[in-house]
Amino acid sequence: MGKTLFEKIWDKHVVRTIEDGPDVLYIDKHFIHEVTSPQAFAGLAKRGLALFRPDRTIATADHNVPTKDQHLPIKDRLSRLQVDQLIENCKNFGVELYGLGHPFQGIVHVIGPELGITQPGMTIVCGDSHTSTHGAFGSIAFGIGTSEVEMVFASQCLLQNRPKLMRINIEGSLNKGVVSKDIILYIISKISASGGTGYFIEFAGSAIRSLSMESRMTICNMSIEMGARGGMIAPDETTFNYIKGRHFAPSGEEWERKTSQWKQLFSDEDAQFDKEIAINAENIEPMITYGTNPGLGIAINALIPSIESITEEGERKNIIKALEYMGLQAGKPLKGMPVQNVFIGSCTNSRIEDLRLVASVVKGRKKSENVKVMIVPGSQQVAAQAKEEGLNRIFEEAGFEVRQAGCSACLGMNEDKIPSGEYCISTSNRNFEGRQGAGARTLLASPLTAAAAAITGVVSDVRELMEQ
Amino acid sequence: MEPIKIIHSTFVPLAMENIDTDQIIPARFLKATTKEGFGKNLFRDWRYENGEESRPVKEFVLNQRVYQGKILVAGKNFGCGSSREHAAWAIHDYGFTVVVSSFFADIFKNNALNNGVLPVQVSESFLQELFKQHPDASLTVNLEDQSITIDNTGQKEVFQINNYKKTCLLNGYDDIDFLLSIKEDIEQYEQQQY
Ligand code: SF4
Angle CA(A395)–CA(A398)–CA(A399) in degrees, nearest 5? Predict the structure, then answer.
């Protein structure tokens, strides 16, 4: 019987199998950041151990860093402590750090791919759930907890149970105004925020093949929001072209050798999945969420579902609670509703293509007076490129606030927060209660939909702006 | 890690579904660099009005003195959201050794097991039975035979846990101890593959 893409990579990385227990899985790349690493370093020191493979470990500071005046010392004492601790730990344990002030600094899931560190066929982990992003390259990439970070530090291995496998086939061509964020929000709205639990997901089909690498990353990034362990896409020419020439990409003979290996990374015709789902791309419209988990999403012109239409009692209670928090009404449209904030950023949508999408809507226009718009590039390299391409000028002329690289208002750990009770159209990945600041109300959407709201000041269908 | 064998305790019921890690421990408390002290911020935003410790939310179960114990019983899909292990630390630091739900998010389940917290997955009907119990009802969780029993009614259910994890918890050792013991295998693997 043939093998799935997942199985091909997993099997190659099994050091040993424990009977009636997990596999010992070898890890090729380990990304770390300031928030989930300090306790792991402390644990390692406490056991009197060195870091087993520092050359497979890459660090950056992203979650906590300010996105303004990054050249100045960090004002928040605890954030500063955490970032300083990372610098200290990396020095003591011999880890390469792309910290503040380094041209490679940025959100961990943005820099891995853009530096060519992320490659097909690898096993990649990081103490952050959106590590699934790297799966877009045809690698097995997933988030881990701090104890597991310590395990990888100590042994470059993890004890892992083999997950179940799901394939989601998305066929057909995308409608106008629909981008990869809409695809993934659509899928999550169909299978729910827990519909992927226990599974590792392969995304396949003509609609996926037609996407750029950055768009594929957005899809894999949010596979975690349906509860999945991770998501992945088989590598192809698009993947190879993206990697070629990047800072840490293989070159010369090594490139030839690697690409011929990478070309073997696909699910065989007769490979078996535990579950398969088919999605018709033509049914997807620009999406927006109305609730407090990413599964509560609707097409931009649709109505928030009526409470009576939800048959399952637990789910009904959840939605009532979510709507109360969001200050929204069942059965009513979202379109036309005023918003006070727009946040464009996060590891879901802060890459150069995302900024180009935003610029395509915003060019020559001004933002609405009623909204505050924050645009936060995912990395120093994205920021530099945006500047070079003249995108920054478009944003500034529109009245957007362009910040420096970091996680920012995606999780509101630094000072970038949404005020309590206000609405924010956000290109990030989570709309949980208080995620963007206590009391903040998050509506997840694509960069295009976010750009449209920035211009109109209300929830808008970007297609109407594209026609003008 | 403390070994876990039999836990006999009253429990704290939290009859809500999809409790995510941002509620278990809000992001603003993730700035610590040690594992201790998270318990006092467990469910912080549900526990206090405006986050002020002087203004506990009376209706919230952790603030109701009648509910005590080492076992937390929560609705379906507990621990969804981010991979932050701080959620497991907070639960452990608060004093819970067992969390019972009808469904756990994957990463949370792993994190709990790695920190001496036993996730016990029960059927939805058993869970609803638990929510109906009187505040002083106690439970017995027996890891050895993988069972959970409502003491006064005798209702019992068996739960799943993989053998490897079970042995770890029963003996109080962790994955790192194991991985260090097979270092030679790991080095050999590296030589073959790379
Ligand atoms: S941008 Fe948001 S989701 Fe991504 S790594 Fe940072 S905090 Fe996590």
Answer: 90
Residues A432, B22: C-beta atoms closer than 8 Å: yes
- Residues linked to residue A298 through DSSP beta bridges, in sequence order: A288
Instruction: Tell me where in chain B the CATH 3.20.19.10 domain(s) lie.
Output: 6-160
CA distance A418 to A441: 8
Q: Is A74 on the interface with B (CB under 8 A)?
A: no
Structure tokens at A41: 């370093």
pTM here is 0.89
**Are the CB atoms for A379 and A112 separated by under 8 Å?**
no
Do the beta carbons of residue A132 and residue A228 sit within 8 Å? Answer: yes
Token couple for A46: 């406490």
Q: Which tokens belong to A269?
A: 């015709």
Cβ distance A213 to A135 under 8 Å?
Answer: no
Q: Which class is A334-467 in CATH?
A: alpha beta
Range with lowest mean pLDDT among A431-435, B33-37, B152-156: B33-37
Separation CA B26–CA B8 (nearest Å): 30
What six digits make up the tokens of A115?
Answer: 């530096």
How distant is the Cα of B117 from the closest Cα of chain A, in angstroms?
13
Chain B's closest residue to A125, CA to CA, is B83
**ipTM for this prediction:** 0.90
CA distances for A166 relative to A4, A204, A390, B95, B106, angstroms:
10, 11, 42, 37, 15
User: From the CA of A185, how far away is ligand 1's center (Å)?
Assistant: 17
Distance between CA A106 and CA A112 in Å, rounded?
9
CA distances from B89 to B25, B36, B73, B78 (A): 9, 8, 17, 15
CB atoms within 10 A of CB A311: 7
Tell the residue nearest (CA) to atom 2 of ligand 1. Answer: A410
Any binding-site annotation on A410?
yes
Of residues B162, B165, B186, nearest to A155 (C-beta): B186
Domain B6-160 architecture: Alpha-Beta Barrel (3.20)
A16 touches chain B (CB under 8 A): yes
Residues 6+ apart with CB under 8 A from B26: A434, A438, B41, B44, B45
How far is Cα A178 from Cα A184, in angstroms, rounded to an integer? Answer: 11
Task: Name the class of domain A5-275.
Answer: alpha beta
Decide: A202 and A232 in contact? Cβ < 8 Å: yes
Boundaries of CATH 3.30.499.10 in chain A?
Answer: 5-275, 334-467
Using CA of residue A372, residue A384, residue A355, residue A61, what is the dihedral sign?
Answer: negative
* Inter-chain CB proximity A413 and B31 less than 8 Å: yes
Q: State the smallest CA–CA distance between residue A25 and chain B in angstroms.
A: 10
Any B CB within 8 A of A408 CB = no
**Distance, CA of A92 to CA of A57 (rounded, Å):** 13
- The CA distance from A327 to A283, in Å, is 29
Q: What is the pLDDT of residues A56-84, one digit of tens each?
A: 999 999 998 999 999 898 988 888 999 99
Closest CA to A318 of B121, B72, B19, B122: B19
Whether the CB-CB separation of B182 and A16 falls below 8 Å is answered with yes
- In this predicted model, what pLDDT tens digit does every residue of A248-292 receive, in sequence order? 999 999 999 999 999 999 999 999 999 999 999 999 999 999 999
Helix (H) or strand (E) holding B14: strand B6-14
Instruction: Tally the C-alpha atoms within 13 A of residue B69's C-alpha that lie toward its C-beta.
Output: 24
**A24 closest CB neighbour out of B31, B103, B182:** B182
CA proximity to A29, closest of A63, A54, A62: A54
Instruction: Confirm whether residue A157 is marked as ligand binding.
Output: no
**Which residues in chain B are closer than 8 Å to A315, comparing Cβ atoms?**
17
